[in-house]
Structures are given as C-alpha cells and as structure tokens.
Write a structure and sequence with these properties.
Length: 204
Amino acid sequence: MRKSAEEARRTRDRIVSVAVTQASSAGLSGLTIGSLAETLDMSKAGVVGPFGSRAGLQLAALERAVELFMEAVVAPGRAAEPGLPCLHAVIDSWCAYLADSPFPNGCFVTAASCELDGQPGELRARLYDAVTRWRRFLAEQVTTARAAGDLAPDLDPEDLVSTLTGLAMAANQEIQLLGDEGAARRARRLMRAALARHRPGPAA
C-alpha cells in the first residue's frame, strides 16, 4: 500500500511537471489532456485521474509554478535580514530568475497574469491570491526598512512595489519578446537604483 501511494505521488508530480512546461508555452487555457497524454505516453484517463478534471490539472500546474517562483525568488529574501537586506536579496534572485527562467516562455506568473486578468474563475482567483501574497511580502519588507531608517519615512510601500513589479514585467518582455540579453542586468540596476532614491538624507 505504501509503495502504491509513493508511485501515485511520483506519477502526479511527473504529470504536473510536464503540464507546467506545456502551459508555459501554450498558456493554461491551451493545456490539453491529449497533448499531455501523448508527451507522457499515458492514457488520457491516467493523466486526468489524479486531478479529477482538466480544471484540477490546470490548478495544480499553476500552484506548482507559483511554488517554483517562491522557492527561487522569495526564499533567498527570507534567508536575509528583514527590510533592506531582504529587498536586495529578492531583487538579485528575482532578476536571476528572469534571466534563467525554468520555463520556456519566461516568468510563468507574469504570463499567467496577462492570460487570466480578464478571465473570472478559480484559476484567476488562485493567481490573484498568490500575487497578492507576493506584493504584501514586498510591501512588508519596505515597511520594515522604512521603520529601521533605511528608507525615507514618507515612502509609500505600494509605490515601490509597483515600481519593482513594473521593472520585472518589462524585463520579462525584453528577454522573451525582444531577445535582450542585458534586460535582467538592467532591471537589477534599476531596481537597486529605485531603492537608493528612497534612502533618507541629502544623498537620496
């Protein structure tokens, strides 16, 4: 029984891994049971079985992509001191993630945001929750840095979060659409410059 459960877990993980890769190229709406079954050399029933439906498989793919983003970008920040050191670590890991994305078409969360922003439903709701948590995490670090005196006391955390997010989304487009090899380095420089502009004192 234990062996069967482990095999089922491995099979599910394998399906989700391929699903995330395919969804990165075709979008979550373009994810089909047939194409996955062909790639995995499995039956359609075997592919959809662990998830109950195509919608369940789409959700699993989205959640895996978000997990990978959190592991690559957020975890290094959490390992640093809260506030400005965390923001510097996040910026570095975020830009490294953009430069060397594990997905064929770049940042999955950015692509999914463009795909789902006008598509009400559970997928959009799950992505909304993930992006909201991410932005809240960034805003908390800005607030902590501001309280420590590392950032100007009149800085609105949401302003800086929007600036950093906009630079990341622009870099993703420059990398994926324009083939700009310097985009991630530029984004890192501009993100760090945005932090520097809000340092307190005459030098800011």
